[in-house]
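@channel sequence for tomorrow's demo:
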Amino acid sequence: MSEPVPVVARGRLLQPVRAQLFCRRWLGMAALLGMLALPTASVASEGDHELWAGVAVTETPKLGAALRYRYAFTDFWAIGAALQHRRDLDGAHESAGLGEVRLTIDALTWVPSIAVGVGAAMAGGADPALMARVAGELAYRPARDWALSVQVGVEQLQDVPRLYVGFSYGWLRTKASDLDF
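structure tokens (generated this afternoon):
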């Protein structure tokens, strides 16, 4: 039987048992990263039509409703439009229409994604102003035809950035079967 080969990590000599654990951990992490990098053949959301309705609150505070439509042209990319209307405690209101692009990070039961939108908004009777939004979204999709989501993001209207949180229910029309999910 041969003598164990000494392993040096971070400038220290590791004992043979610790060296084996050290190597196994790094090999396991490399194998996991390799599996995650492989493309898959499943159809998760390509061709899906999504209609979302929900409520949102901003830090100013404003409470409002939103309606959003998206079409997923790949498993990871979707385009769409959003309409929203919000009121504050004093009764002042604002309305906005935005075009959106969404990048889905993963498409399992919990679906994290990032959405970016740009459009026009009107606050009170003022002229339309440019509005931009960046949001992180986490949707819970236990079935192919519906989902619940929470969005946390930053939107900017008239050079004033503000945080918002939104909650939505989505009706989803998909061409994929449950076997593809």
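heads up for whoever presents: The chain has two domains: 7-37, 49-175.
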